[in-house]
């Protein structure tokens, strides 16, 4: 807006405006900010009786402004905002009170030092004279000075290779023509006729040659491009129409045409020989693993040979032995990782006689086991009969290149080699589906860098990757490459950038982003370079908020939501520049700790971790545990020395070694995402930063085509009820909820809620009416992959007061209560609780590829109830192969709010009788697919899951013993009211299973349980196959369970092993309602043996 007005605060957030008014603390205090809901509109915020009232200021077609005030007050129009404000200083204008005290803008003092420490990388200027347009004499002097400078430069150059006529032409231009061009510019003509004449003279022969060459290349191009019809093309027409076109234009056409011809020819040739391709054309070499096989407590050396191309896994007794014993890919049913022994893996296979065998294998190290699992998963994927993938892998890399050209070999970056969580050599040639590369201080051109990346990947994978998008802001760049086979699965590609440099107008700092749809799953990637300097932490936080607010990616219909809510999977990478917050005097101490690889003390002072713990930035994001050395600030050309001092005119500046370069992620609830690698390279040393890599396995949804007859299929429904919002605001307004989802035809709104104020600054809003949402497709295969985005809005200005997300998979089996954290512009603004019930048509969900690998939690039970309960209960939990989608991350330290949780069903729901006290449904007991490892009434192949191996995954796979307290950390205090009604009576003291962020029974761990007609002791019907799972025969030494963990329990009854239908982990639709926890064994549901083979009394 024109001129400086102290009461105009620009695009500050609504919450910031409320804070400023609260500090003013006088009735009639006011400010004006930009509207968050309507572009070009404003919001007038007025404080009265400690409440903030917001009025929209809207422009009409003539751009005149009016205030939406009380009804009955005549609408007045104003040309300028100052005029409007002046009028509303008067009384009786329809506001709650007239304007009295303007709240001043806060001075942005943080931005000034940024200019001193890091000046923007502007292009060099040619004009060195101090000319002013208003002074003709000084202009003439500047032009003459310019001519003299260039003539002097020309004299010092080697012109031996330049033809005499060209030399004379350049000299003549600098003598006279450059002065004439300068005069033309002063008169408003920017065409520089002298320069044009010079280039035409020098390029005379080139010009005629280009004119001669272009038609032939155009014909060749048309022959390669089958999609274009033959005939005279646009290039020839353009050339013949305007014979006076510039050389640069013709060269640009020639360059584009040559690049296009090269790409099309490569594509055609590569495809014809199978060089290009994805899962089915890339050639992954055969890999052999030397392992030990456990059988009856005896370890035997063995060799596993993995042939991905033929789809076979060979079991050999010697490296060069016969290859007569093998299993084809479709006979390899499951891989089950031991969590206690990180080198142990159980391979579940089916023999020709349809028998299920379990082979316990021990690898040399955990990395080898991971490499083997990745190869087997690649084999299953390659030979899958599914038309569309349900799981892909994504490589994410970030590197501050330090304005230096990269070295010839950067292969280690893309193979995740170096420090940290790295991949095994056996996985070197497994191609990722997507490669996302973010660079900062990148000196290369877009095309040059993209060609380097494609060349490196071609050498590693034998695949010619396709460029999905490339986006550059100054020297900040992001490149997205994809397998060619995915080309038709990618759509809705968007890119955008945000400047956060000096005054948010320069692009030396900021972010670039790319988003797209992969079939039915949305992806977002943000590469940012934030403000540097150890002391600039708050400025970096503000950079993050600005990027989050103004980066425009994803579905434009999701306007109320920032980018953290718009994507199924969002990855944020870059040089975030957060430092280790220790005094500069500790520099040598820091280096010593790094050499000793003792990172934990330094990580505790990592600014990003501290700001995240304080919920100031990256709320609800996850980051893999850091196990690599700080990636900044190295001495170039070595990784042995940190150059942490820098001499400047103002003194010595310290840049302590820090983890500046990071990769974080945020995904919708209950979706599959696992981090396979996170680390940095050791051998790329041209910059003072080391490249950082991360690799992720993520679940994706297909573009669904229902197999059901739309006329006969029952109509599905989503019921959301009993919603209560707690909002941290001082606004005096009414609220309603909007529901968004790609599975809905349109946005659905609730009616106004009822407000009740609280003294702690929160407003509680009840939305009593039940909302019925009608999905476009009712098939469970489709619906269970969908999410509902929720936005709580105000009625006065239609602005969001908080957004959140609910997974429909949470309500797969029954009515489920939810508790989600509401956020807005990266800040926590409140909570929303309620219930959701899902009604789908008949249909079965298919098993996902990521269900192929499971986690076995097989360490001794340290507390809680008896082991047999766990063996039974976690028959479902085995399906959780990934803790991240259940809210369990790999970070060290306490994790608090994860953004969402789902509770047990309440007592009054007749879904499973007595079992409701254990929560007839729990999202923590299955994979995101809802596939249950124990086969129920309507499922087959039960013998595969009778093995207690599938009852041993009580916790998710990365945490071990400290998951208990982290589960507690996920539980927000308000969630207590949504605990299962009988949960306190009996099920709180068992060890936690993998759950969403908040579990309703993570407290009262030692509370006694009432008697139940079920033995919690392991069953005694031991089978001889057990020792293959006995952890090398150590299981019999396990101590008996403490008596306090099973109070009031009857004596064990061996024949009556606990029925799977008796525990809370079995979904209600698999439980016959008449059983209500009765101990009636069912052979298809019983475990064959106790988890560790412990005898009973």
TrEMBL record:
<dbReference type="GO" id="GO:0016020">
    <property type="term" value="C:membrane"/>
</dbReference>
<keyword id="KW-0472">Membrane</keyword>
<protein>
    <recommendedName>
        <fullName>phosphatidylinositol-3,4,5-trisphosphate 5-phosphatase</fullName>
        <ecNumber>3.1.3.86</ecNumber>
    </recommendedName>
</protein>
<comment type="similarity">
    <text>Belongs to the inositol 1,4,5-trisphosphate 5-phosphatase family.</text>
</comment>
<dbReference type="InterPro" id="IPR057510">
    <property type="entry name" value="C2_SHIP1-2_first"/>
</dbReference>
<feature type="domain" description="SH2">
    <location>
        <begin position="7"/>
        <end position="103"/>
    </location>
</feature>
<feature type="compositionally biased region" description="Polar residues">
    <location>
        <begin position="997"/>
        <end position="1007"/>
    </location>
</feature>
<dbReference type="InterPro" id="IPR036691">
    <property type="entry name" value="Endo/exonu/phosph_ase_sf"/>
</dbReference>
<keyword id="KW-0597">Phosphoprotein</keyword>
<dbReference type="GO" id="GO:0005856">
    <property type="term" value="C:cytoskeleton"/>
</dbReference>
<dbReference type="GO" id="GO:0046856">
    <property type="term" value="P:phosphatidylinositol dephosphorylation"/>
</dbReference>
<dbReference type="Pfam" id="PF22669">
    <property type="entry name" value="Exo_endo_phos2"/>
</dbReference>
<dbReference type="GO" id="GO:0007155">
    <property type="term" value="P:cell adhesion"/>
</dbReference>
<keyword id="KW-0206">Cytoskeleton</keyword>
<dbReference type="Pfam" id="PF24150">
    <property type="entry name" value="C2_SHIP1-2_first"/>
</dbReference>
<keyword id="KW-0391">Immunity</keyword>
<feature type="compositionally biased region" description="Basic and acidic residues">
    <location>
        <begin position="1056"/>
        <end position="1068"/>
    </location>
</feature>
<dbReference type="GO" id="GO:0045779">
    <property type="term" value="P:negative regulation of bone resorption"/>
</dbReference>
<feature type="region of interest" description="Disordered">
    <location>
        <begin position="104"/>
        <end position="139"/>
    </location>
</feature>
<dbReference type="GO" id="GO:0045579">
    <property type="term" value="P:positive regulation of B cell differentiation"/>
</dbReference>
<dbReference type="Pfam" id="PF00017">
    <property type="entry name" value="SH2"/>
</dbReference>
<dbReference type="InterPro" id="IPR036860">
    <property type="entry name" value="SH2_dom_sf"/>
</dbReference>
<keyword id="KW-0130">Cell adhesion</keyword>
<dbReference type="GO" id="GO:0009968">
    <property type="term" value="P:negative regulation of signal transduction"/>
</dbReference>
<feature type="region of interest" description="Disordered">
    <location>
        <begin position="906"/>
        <end position="1097"/>
    </location>
</feature>
<dbReference type="InterPro" id="IPR057509">
    <property type="entry name" value="C2_SHIP1-2_2nd"/>
</dbReference>
<dbReference type="GO" id="GO:0034485">
    <property type="term" value="F:phosphatidylinositol-3,4,5-trisphosphate 5-phosphatase activity"/>
</dbReference>
<keyword id="KW-0727">SH2 domain</keyword>
<dbReference type="GO" id="GO:0005829">
    <property type="term" value="C:cytosol"/>
</dbReference>
<feature type="compositionally biased region" description="Basic and acidic residues">
    <location>
        <begin position="954"/>
        <end position="968"/>
    </location>
</feature>
<keyword id="KW-0963">Cytoplasm</keyword>
<dbReference type="Pfam" id="PF24147">
    <property type="entry name" value="C2_SHIP1-2_2nd"/>
</dbReference>
<dbReference type="GO" id="GO:0045659">
    <property type="term" value="P:negative regulation of neutrophil differentiation"/>
</dbReference>
<dbReference type="InterPro" id="IPR000300">
    <property type="entry name" value="IPPc"/>
</dbReference>
<dbReference type="GO" id="GO:0002376">
    <property type="term" value="P:immune system process"/>
</dbReference>
<keyword id="KW-0378">Hydrolase</keyword>
<dbReference type="InterPro" id="IPR000980">
    <property type="entry name" value="SH2"/>
</dbReference>
<dbReference type="GO" id="GO:0050776">
    <property type="term" value="P:regulation of immune response"/>
</dbReference>
């Amino acid at each position: 807006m024109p001129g400086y007005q102290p009461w105009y605060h620009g695009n500050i957030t609504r919450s910031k405006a409320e804070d400023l008014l609260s500090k003013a603390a006088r009735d009639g205090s006011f400010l004006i900010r930009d509207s968050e809901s309507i572009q070009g509109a404003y919001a007038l915020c007025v404080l009265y009786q400690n409440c903030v009232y917001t009025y929209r200021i809207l422009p009409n077609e003539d751009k005149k402004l009016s205030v939406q005030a009380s009804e009955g007050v005549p609408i007045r129009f104003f040309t300028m905002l100052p005029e409007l404000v002046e009028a509303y200083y008067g009384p009786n204008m329809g506001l709650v009170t007239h304007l009295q005290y303007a709240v001043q803008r806060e001075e942005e003092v943080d931005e000034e030092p940024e200019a001193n420490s890091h000046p923007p990388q502007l292009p060099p200027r040619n004009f060195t004279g101090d000319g002013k347009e208003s002074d003709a004499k000084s202009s003439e002097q500047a032009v003459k000075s310019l001519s003299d400078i260039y003539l002097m430069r020309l004299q010092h150059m080697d012109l031996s290779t330049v033809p005499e006529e060209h030399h004379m032409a350049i000299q003549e231009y600098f003598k006279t023509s450059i002065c004439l061009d300068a005069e033309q510019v002063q008169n408003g003509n920017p065409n520089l006729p002298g320069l044009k004449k010079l280039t035409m003279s020098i390029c005379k022969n080139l010009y005629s040659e280009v004119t001669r060459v272009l038609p032939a290349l155009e014909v060749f191009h048309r022959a390669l491009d089958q999609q274009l019809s033959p005939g005279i093309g646009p290039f020839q027409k353009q050339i013949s129409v305007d014979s006076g076109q510039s050389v640069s234009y013709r060269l640009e056409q020639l360059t584009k045409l040559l690049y296009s011809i090269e790409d099309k020819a490569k594509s055609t040739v590569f495809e014809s020989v199978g060089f290009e391709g994805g899962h089915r054309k890339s050639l992954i070499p055969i890999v052999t693993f030397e392992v030990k096989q456990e059988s009856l407590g005896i370890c035997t050396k063995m060799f596993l040979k993995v042939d991905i191309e033929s789809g076979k896994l060979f079991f050999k007794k010697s490296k060069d032995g016969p290859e007569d014993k093998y299993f084809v890919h479709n006979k390899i049913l499951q891989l089950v990782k031991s969590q206690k022994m990180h080198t142990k893996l159980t391979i579940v296979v089916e023999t020709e006689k349809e028998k299920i065998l379990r082979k316990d294998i021990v690898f040399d190290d955990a990395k080898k086991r991971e490499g083997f699992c990745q190869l087997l998963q690649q084999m299953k994927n390659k030979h899958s009969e599914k038309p569309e993938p349900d799981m892909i892998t994504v490589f994410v890399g970030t590197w501050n290149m330090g304005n230096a050209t990269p070295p010839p070999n950067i292969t280690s970056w893309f193979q995740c080699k170096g420090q940290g969580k790295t991949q095994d050599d056996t996985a070197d040639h497994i191609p990722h589906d997507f490669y996302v590369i973010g660079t900062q201080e990148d000196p290369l051109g877009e095309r040059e860098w993209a060609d380097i990346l494609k060349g490196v990947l071609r050498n590693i994978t034998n695949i010619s990757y396709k460029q999905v998008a490339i986006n550059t802001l100054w020297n900040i760049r992001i490149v997205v490459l994809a397998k060619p086979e995915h080309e038709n699965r990618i759509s809705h590609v968007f890119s955008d950038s945000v400047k956060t440099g000096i005054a948010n107008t320069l692009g030396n700092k900021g972010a670039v982003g790319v988003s797209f749809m992969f079939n039915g799953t949305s992806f977002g990637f943000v590469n940012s370079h934030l403000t540097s300097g150890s002391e600039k932490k708050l400025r970096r936080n503000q950079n993050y908020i600005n990027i989050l607010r103004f980066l425009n990616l994803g579905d434009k219909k999701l306007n109320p939501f920032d980018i953290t809510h718009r994507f199924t999977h969002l990855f944020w990478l870059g040089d975030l520049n957060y430092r280790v917050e220790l005094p500069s005097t500790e520099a040598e101490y820091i280096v010593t700790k790094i050499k000793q690889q003792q990172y934990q003390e330094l990580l505790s002072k990592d600014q990003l971790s501290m700001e995240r713990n304080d919920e100031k930035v990256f709320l609800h994001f996850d980051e893999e545990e850091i196990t690599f050395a700080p990636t900044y600030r190295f001495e170039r050309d070595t990784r042995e020395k940190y150059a942490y001092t820098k001499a400047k005119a103002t003194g010595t500046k310290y840049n302590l070694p820090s983890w500046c370069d990071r990769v974080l992620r945020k995904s919708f609830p209950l979706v599959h995402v696992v981090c396979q690698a996170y680390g940095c390279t050791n051998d790329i040393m041209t910059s003072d930063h080391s490249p950082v890599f991360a690799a992720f396995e993520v679940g994706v949804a297909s573009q669904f085509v229902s197999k059901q007859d739309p006329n006969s299929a029952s109509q599905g429904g989503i019921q959301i009820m009993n919603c209560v919002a707690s909002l941290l605001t001082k606004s005096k307004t009414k609220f309603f909820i909007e529901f968004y989802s790609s599975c809905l035809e349109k946005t659905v709104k609730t009616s106004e809620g009822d407000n009740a104020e609280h003294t702690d600054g929160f407003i509680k809003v009840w939305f009593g009416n039940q909302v019925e949402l009608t999905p476009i497709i009712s098939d469970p295969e489709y619906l269970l992959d969908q999410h509902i985005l929720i936005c709580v809005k105000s009625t006065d200005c239609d602005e969001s007061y908080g957004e959140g997300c609910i997974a429909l998979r949470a309500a797969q089996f029954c009515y489920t209560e939810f508790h989600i954290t509401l956020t807005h512009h990266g800040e926590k603004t409140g909570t929303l609780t309620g219930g959701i019930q899902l009604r789908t048509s008949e249909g079965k969900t298919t098993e996902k590829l990521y269900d192929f690998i499971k986690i076995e939690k097989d360490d001794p039970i340290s507390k809680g109830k008896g082991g047999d309960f766990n063996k039974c209960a976690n028959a479902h939990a085995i399906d959780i192969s990934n803790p991240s989608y259940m809210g369990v991350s790999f970070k060290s330290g306490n994790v608090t709010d994860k953004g969402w949780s789902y509770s047990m069903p309440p007592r009054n729901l007749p879904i499973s009788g007595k079992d409701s006290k254990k929560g007839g449904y729990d999202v923590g007991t299955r994979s995101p697919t809802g596939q249950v490892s124990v086969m129920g009434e309507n499922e087959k192949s039960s013998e595969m899951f009778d093995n207690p191996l599938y009852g041993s995954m009580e916790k998710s796979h990365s945490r071990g013993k400290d998951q208990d307290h982290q589960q507690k950390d996920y539980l927000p205090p308000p969630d207590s009211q949504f605990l299962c009604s009988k949960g306190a009576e009996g099920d709180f003291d068992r060890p936690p299973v993998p759950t969403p962020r908040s579990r309703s029974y993570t407290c009262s761990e030692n509370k006694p349980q009432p008697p139940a007609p079920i033995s919690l002791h392991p069953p005694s019907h031991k089978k001889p196959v057990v020792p293959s799972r006995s952890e090398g025969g150590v299981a019999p030494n396990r101590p008996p369970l403490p008596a306090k963990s099973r109070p009031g329990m009857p004596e064990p009854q061996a024949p009556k092993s606990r029925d799977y239908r008796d525990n809370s982990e079995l979904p209600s639709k698999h439980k016959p309602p008449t059983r209500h926890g009765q101990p009636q064994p069912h052979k298809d549901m019983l475990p064959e043996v106790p988890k560790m083979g412990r005898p009973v009394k």
